[in-house]
Amino acid sequence: MTDLVLIQGLRIDTVIGVYGWEKEIWQTLVLDLDLACDIRPSAESDDISKAVDYAAISERLTETIGEMRVDLIETVAERSAQLLLKEFPIKGVKLTVSKPGAVPQAESVGVRIVRGEGI
Ligand SMILES: Nc1nc2c(c(=O)[nH]1)N=C([C@H](O)[C@@H](O)CO)CN2
């Protein structure tokens, strides 16, 4: 059995992009996460210390990605997934990183990766 903790539409401002002009501006990335875990310990105890804390994860990602200076959203996705697997009690993660407005003809563009187990 696999449970999921969800974070949807997490907006993070950062400096990112392939082109020189992108390194001079802030742009918004939008993250969607499925975090595979067992929610029974937190549900049975009603104890946040036994939960996959979506607020703590959102704060950690906002701080880390906000300070990242990379070209590709692939790099953001891979580094974020590895950080989450290392620092939080999750078995796996499905992570979508979207960059709305990057392609004028598209509502949004992005990448989606799955790392670890249980997704
Ligand atoms: N697969 C990717 N393609 C592109 C990326 C990216 O991060 N991954 N980035 C760019 C530019 O930075 C673009 O967002 C500027 O409009 C182009 N292609």
UniProtKB/TrEMBL annotation:
Pathway: Cofactor biosynthesis; tetrahydrofolate biosynthesis; 2-amino-4-hydroxy-6-hydroxymethyl-7,8-dihydropteridine diphosphate from 7,8-dihydroneopterin triphosphate: step 3/4. Its EC number is 4.1.2.25. InterPro entries: Dihydroneopterin_aldolase (IPR006156), FolB_dom (IPR006157), GTP-CH-I_C/QueF (IPR043133). It holds the Pfam family FolB. Keywords: Folate biosynthesis, Lyase. One of its GO terms (molecular function) is dihydroneopterin aldolase activity. Residues 5-115 form the Dihydroneopterin aldolase/epimerase domain. Belongs to the DHNA family. NCBIfam families: folB (TIGR00525), folB_dom (TIGR00526). This is 7,8-dihydroneopterin aldolase. The lineage of its organism: Bacteria, Pseudomonadati, Pseudomonadota, Gammaproteobacteria, Alteromonadales.
